[in-house]
Amino acid sequence: MELIWDPTYECMEREEIEQLQLERLQATLNRAYKNVSCYRNKFNELGIVPEDIRSLADLARLPFTTKEDLRLNYPYGMFAVPLREVVRIHSSSGTTGKPTVVGYTKHDLQTWSGLVARFMTAAGVTHDDVVQIAFGYGLFTGAFGLHYGSETIGASVIPMSSGNTEKQIMIMQDYKSTALVCTPTYAITLADKMERMGVDPNSLSLKVGLFGGEPWSESMRKEIETRLGLSATDNYGLSEVIGPGVAGECPHKCGMHIFEDAFIAEIIDPETCQVLPPGSVGELVLTTLTKEALPMIRYRTRDITSLDYSKCACGRTLVRMKKTMGRSDDMLIIKGVNVFPSQIEEVLFAIEGCQPHYQLVVDRVGAMDDLEVRIEVTENIFFDEMKRQRAFLEMVEKKIASMLGVGATVKLVEPNSIPRQEGKASRVIDKRKI
Ligand code: DLL
Which residue minimizes the CA distance to atom 28 of ligand 1? Predict the structure, then answer.
């Protein structure tokens, strides 16, 4: 029998979940309307009061919340409690403009730790594990979220923080870490470093990896599993909604279970903003149901995914979200075709000799978009004779074109020439001035 951290909430019948969601939604709407002027104003503009929402279907009548709302109300304007009740502040890793500030009450921290404990348990972590956290400790929610979740389970936490890759490996060896927490990109960096140091991953005690914070493909999962000798699991979340702890995979790895007693998930068409039927691919919209300090109503995540309500073999009844395809705002439009970096990643990982490090450079030459895919290749390919290298290049270009439906120029670059990141990868350079 598989371990489930909180069977009461993770295995409810659909009807029960929906009843609980409706009750919690009504309480959340009342609190948000009363205490947050941004929500009150938006509701008033539409002539809606919280009492109008009598069913989950009525949710579609409510306005969306966006990152822009958080920016406009920077730093504390979206908080629904006075600052003296806020015991923790984090901030999201925004790259443009002001960051978004998020707050937690004492009760929010407890809820958060419990949700993280759920997905860590689902991934196979128990109180016997030694969890090495290689997310950066700081304003980013990743490290603290998994730290508190591990402690809630009773596992031993090593708050290693990010970077210092050699030391990470030494600690892994000496402290016999059994669970690794970081971004999937950093897991690859660790594997590269181990290879260079001559460390055999099988000599380590690693059993499970909890990776999240950025999109990653199934091929990348396979690569990490083989190279680090662990079971690689995915977990999803975002600062505005809580941090990590929105959803996570069970051992069946067939989508991430969303903790529906704490969040309502909808999928919308990012263009028309209409709610799409179950199973459709679109943008994930989340509403929080238990948060006190920062309730979020219909928050547009910009993440593209789909929801699967079918039964999961693990016994959890919670809906599963597919690995995200990327963000609607990361989506590149090349010559009119929608391109997600993850699609290119999928192609590259399947090719022998391509390293899992790549960069996409988009430019506009005249009126035409131009996509260049820079990929690191193994030394034997990079220094191979021209003819063979040419053939390799053409093969990669062909595969990319058939996957994307649009051509790209492939450029082979030397091993280790693409800058490495300790946290989330940034793979796109868009030079177009549109
Ligand atoms: O990245 C929270 C987190 C930390 C989740 C650690 C999981 C593990 P932000 O910095 O606010 O919060 O970034 C949120 O990261 O909207 C997604 O675009 C992306 N993201 C997070 N997890 C995943 C994932 C944290 N498993 C943004 N797969 C989100 C794909 C992910 N994208």
Answer: 215
Report how far residue 292's alpha carbon sits from residue 295's, in angstroms, rounded to the nearest whole number: 6
- The residues facing 305 across adjacent strands are 282
The CATH 3.30.300.30 portion of the chain extends over 332-433
**Span 105-113, average pLDDT:** 98
Backbone CA torsion sign across 422, 343, 384, 412? negative
Choose one of 104, 303, 328, 428 to mutate for the ligand 1 pocket test, by most ligand atoms within 8 angstroms of C-beta.
303
pTM of the predicted protein model: 0.89
In the chain, % of residues over pLDDT 70:
98
Does the domain at 1-327 match CATH 3.30.43.10? Answer given as: no
Quick: pLDDT tens for 201-231: 999 999 999 999 988 989 899 999 999 999 9
What is the location of CATH 3.40.50.12780 in the chain? 1-327
Q: Output the CA torsion 305→211→375→333 (10° steps).
A: 20
CATH number of 332-433: 3.30.300.30
- The contacts of residue 341 (CB under 8 Å, 6+ apart) are 215, 326, 330, 332, 360, 427, 428
Spacing, Cα 73 to ligand 1 middle (Å): 22
> Would strands 231-238 and 354-365 be described as parallel, antiparallel, or unpaired?
unpaired
Kindly state the percentage of the chain with pLDDT values over 90.
Answer: 76
pLDDT (tens digit per residue) in 397-420: 999 998 888 889 999 998 889 988
* Binding site membership of 223 for ligand 1 (Cβ less than 6 Å): no
**Nearest residue by C-alpha to atom 21 in ligand 1:** 213
Q: Are 162 and 187 in contact (CB under 8 A)?
A: no
